[in-house]
Specification:
The chain has helices at about 1-35, 45-55, 65-80. By secondary structure, it is mainly alpha-helical. The longest helix has about 35 residues, at about 1-35.
Length: about 80
C-alpha cells in the first residue's frame, strides 16, 4: 500500500516537472519572438498610397446572413487543412 503512494507521488512530480519545462520553453520562445519585433519601427508612406488608402476609410457593417458566416468558417477550415 505504501509503494502505491510513492509511485503516485513520483507520477505527480514527473507531470509537474514536465508542465514546468513546457511553460518555461513557451515563455522563452515568446520572449525571443517578441525581442525580434521593434515597437518603434516607422514606416514611411508616400502620398499616392495615402490617397489610395483614404478611399477605404469609413464605417462598415456586415450585411450578410448565416450563409456568409458559414462560408467564412469553411474557408478558414480549408486554409488550415
Amino acid at each position: 500500500m505504501y509503494s502505491g503512494f510513492v509511485s503516485s507521488r513520483k507520477v505527480l512530480c514527473a507531470v509537474s516537472l514536465t508542465a514546468f519545462f513546457g511553460v518555461s520553453v513557451a515563455l522563452f520562445i515568446a520572449s525571443e519572438v517578441r525581442a525580434g519585433v521593434e515597437q518603434d519601427d516607422v514606416v514611411e508612406v508616400d502620398q499616392t498610397t495615402l490617397a489610395q488608402v483614404g478611399a477605404f476609410v469609413g464605417e462598415y457593417r456586415f450585411v450578410g446572413g448565416q450563409k456568409e458566416r458559414d462560408g467564412i468558417d469553411a474557408a478558414i477550415e480549408r486554409s488550415v487543412a
